[in-house]
């Protein structure tokens, strides 16, 4: 099959009556919803060049995999960079195609949630891309009407457990979260003092959660991630803490988190002791 041309360029050239370029401009493959995978792919290549990484030995984690190719956040990364990883999908009707087309990846049937429950309901939409653990997300979808076809109970996992149990505790180089309305909840549950993907892509769904993009950006900024791209659908962040100076900041954040945890435990111990002494004083009076 001959290499296809960049349709956008040649359509505008014809529309404006311009001469075609002497050197043909080929089409650049993209499978992401708004070509986010091209941005991510280029960013990973830059990172690999800077840090001397072999990307074929690096991993991605895609939460809310859906279709194996269409709107996939990771298909281009596998095809172009040789990466592989873990794809998490809650809708059981989509698993066969994922396993058939993506045998190089570990396909997990689960919904990622932010509690320790072993199962959770999922609401299956008439449009596969819009199924969600949040029923309200389907009901308030602003586009073409969708139908709730079924609600079922599926296995549930927390994001940190996915990394620990299915990625040997090694942080993925790239993380994509696309779970229709619950994305920030999942991101909040990720222990960024322990697991730090170099690049994180997340869908804010501002139509459903007003100012969610701002809330996500605030969270990422507090954890030393920089916003590098914003498409019509997704936000893309890079870890600024990969520099030596920033690594010290992350280490300080981790130490602070541990200190706060210890202080909270001591505070609870003192409150309990105070309550015991107070009861004893009252009973003696």
Automatic annotation (TrEMBL):
Coiled-coil ranges (or none): 253-280
The entry's cellular-component GO terms read: cytoplasm; plasma membrane
BP-aspect Gene Ontology terms:
endoplasmic reticulum to Golgi vesicle-mediated transport; endosomal transport
Arranged from A to Z, the UniProt key words for this protein are: Coiled coil
State one Pfam family annotation: Methyltransf_21
Q: Which residues form the Methyltransferase FkbM domain?
A: 62-226
The record's annotation in InterPro entries points to: EGF_Rcpt_Signaling_Reg, FkbM_mtfrase, SAM-dependent_MTases_sf
State the superkingdom: Bacteria
Q: Which Gene3D superfamilies match?
A: Vaccinia Virus protein VP39
Q: What is this protein called?
A: Methyltransferase FkbM domain-containing protein
């Amino acid at each position: 099959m001959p290499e296809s041309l960049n349709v956008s360029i040649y359509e505008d050239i014809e529309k404006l009556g311009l001469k075609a370029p002497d050197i043909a401009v080929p089409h650049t493959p993209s499978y992401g919803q708004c070509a986010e995978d091209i941005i991510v792919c280029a960013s990973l290549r830059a990172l690999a060049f800077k840090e001397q990484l072999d990307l074929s030995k690096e991993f991605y984690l895609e939460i809310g995999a859906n279709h194996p190719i269409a709107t996939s956040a990771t298909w281009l990364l596998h095809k172009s960079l040789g990466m592989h990883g873990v794809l998490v999908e809650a809708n059981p009707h989509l698993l066969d195609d994922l396993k058939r087309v993506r045998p190089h990846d570990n396909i997990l049937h689960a919904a990622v949630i932010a509690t320790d429950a072993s199962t959770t309901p999922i609401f299956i939409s008439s449009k596969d891309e819009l199924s969600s653990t949040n029923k309200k997300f389907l009901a308030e979808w602003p586009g073409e009407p969708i139908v709730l076809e079924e609600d079922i109970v599926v296995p549930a996992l927390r994001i940190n457990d996915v990394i620990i149990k299915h990625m040997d505790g090694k942080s993925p180089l790239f993380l994509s979260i696309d779970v229709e309305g619950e994305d920030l909840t999942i991101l909040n549950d990720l222990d960024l003092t322990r697991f730090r993907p170099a690049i994180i892509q997340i869908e804010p769904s501002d139509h459903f959660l007003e100012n969610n993009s701002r809330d996500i950006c605030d969270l990422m900024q507090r954890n030393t991630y920089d916003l590098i791209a914003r498409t019509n659908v997704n936000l893309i962040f890079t870890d600024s803490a990969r520099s030596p100076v920033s690594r010290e900041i992350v280490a300080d954040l981790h130490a602070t988190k541990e200190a706060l945890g210890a202080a909270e435990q001591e505070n609870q111990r003192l409150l309990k002791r105070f309550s015991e002494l107070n009861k004893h004083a009252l009973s003696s009076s």
